[in-house]
Specification:
With 310 residues, the chain is α/β, with parallel strands linked by helices. It contains eleven helices and 14 strands. A six-stranded parallel sheet has the order 3-2-1-4-5-7, sandwiched between helices. A three-stranded parallel sheet has the order 6-8-12. It has a three-stranded mixed sheet with strand order 9-11-13. It is globular. Bound molecules: nicotinamide-adenine-dinucleotide and 2-amino-3-ketobutyric acid. InterPro entries: Epimerase_deHydtase, NAD(P)-bd_dom_sf, NAD(P)_epim/dehydratase. One of its GO terms (molecular function) is L-threonine 3-dehydrogenase activity.
Length: 310
Amino acid sequence: MKKILVTGAMGQIGSELVRKLRETYGTSNVIGSDLWKKEEVEGPFEIVDVTDGKAIYETAKKHQVDTIMHLAALLSAKAESAPQLAWNLNMGGLMNALETARELDLQFFTPSSIGAFGPTTPKKKTPQETIMRPTTMYGVNKVAGELLCDYYYSRYGVDTRGVRYPGLISYLTPPGGGTTDYAVEIFYEAVRAKQYTSYIAEGTYMDMMYMPDALNAIIKLMEADPGRLVHRNAYNISAISVAPEDFARAIRKHIPAFELNYDVDPVRQQIAESWPDNLDSSVAEAEWGFEAAYDIDRMTADMLGKLRVE
Ligand code: NAD
Ligand code: AKB
């Protein structure tokens, strides 16, 4: 049985990952942690600032965990408005969490992103191994983070594993300041106002994934036979390659009056244009059996159903 410490557990991924892990491994075996906590959140939880290495170490030791899932980070758009803070949190926090994993011999997961790629990367069917010259602070952090995780594996034998997530779509916790946030907002606004004004331009494709597929991917990767994992940090995974107008088409099948307008934000548009249209996930499929169950229509039906009920 695993015992897992999750950092950044109040965020878009963490809030759902903790629930899913508790369903899988039992409530007492999953310790959430973040800078803050919603009152209603139940189960073991610690306030931990990941820039404080001692705090991560002591929390992991106190709860005798065997795994860290390190999620605390600043996302792409926020990182672009505070690049120094992003470096300190994204790199400093990762280094601290890896050090704890090394010292206590823990399994380690942290997500990379499509943001690790840049404008010179092949845009379509982006290969697992290819040019990685990102032009954002977030991307620089993600590439450096992937290399650091590989280093901790090859130098110290820490069992580090990761995926390059696309933009994630979910209905429980709003996204925390990324370039792909529009892909969540569009569903909330479709239900609330039957219209959405997109800050990403028509025809701009990026990879997206529904949260259940993203969570299943973590569990599958962490449980995979280590002998089969050649790439480790980090695997391309892909589900739905979409532009804003594709979401509008899918939403109109449920809300025919839905209107999509555009008011493009130059900063986030430039970031989006520097990222791939869709990743090739064949290496993840071959090495640990990655698969995505949700296409755009199935995800749209589920998202709208869940948001209408709330
Ligand atoms: P989020 O912004 O929703 O949540 C991040 C959490 O980290 C927040 O709850 C925040 O309070 C916490 N945090 C911030 N500073 C902290 C600190 N100093 N100490 C402890 N906690 C701190 O982010 P998310 O979307 O859940 O992303 C989690 C990870 O997944 C990040 O590494 C992100 O780059 C990666 N990722 C996310 C997506 C996505 O679409 N959500 C896609 C690709 C990769
Ligand atoms: C962001 O837009 O920053 C994230 C990501 C794809 O990494 N959603």
